[in-house]
Amino acid sequence: METNYTEEERYFRAQKRVEEIKKFYEHLTVYVLVNPIVIVVNLMTSPGYLYFIWSLLGWGMAVVLHGLKVFNFAPFFDKDWENKKISEFMENERQSKNTWE
Q1: pLDDT one-digit tens code per residue, 49-71
Q2: Based on the domain organization, do 59 and 94 belong to the same domain?
Q3: Residue 27 and residue 41: Cα distance in Å, rounded?
C-alpha cells in the first residue's frame, strides 16, 4: 500500500521527523549533563548510600527507549504491530456491531 504524498506533505513529514530526532538529542544531552552533578552531590553528601545509581538506571532506560522509538528500532510496538492491532480492533468492532443487529 503505497501512498502518493505531495511535496508539501513530504516536507512536513520530514520536518516532524527532524523535530523528533532533535528532542531525543536534547533528552540525551540533559541526561549526560545532569547525571554527573547528581553523582557529585551524592558522593559529597552521603557517600555511604549511592542513590545516583537509580537516576542512571531509570533515566538511562528512558533515554534508550526514546532512542529506539525515534530511530525506528523498537523490536516491539512497531508500525506493523500498530497496523495489525488497528485492524484487529476494527474487525472486533465490526463483529460486535453485526451481532447487535
Answers
A1: 999 999 999 999 999 999 998 98
A2: no
A3: 21
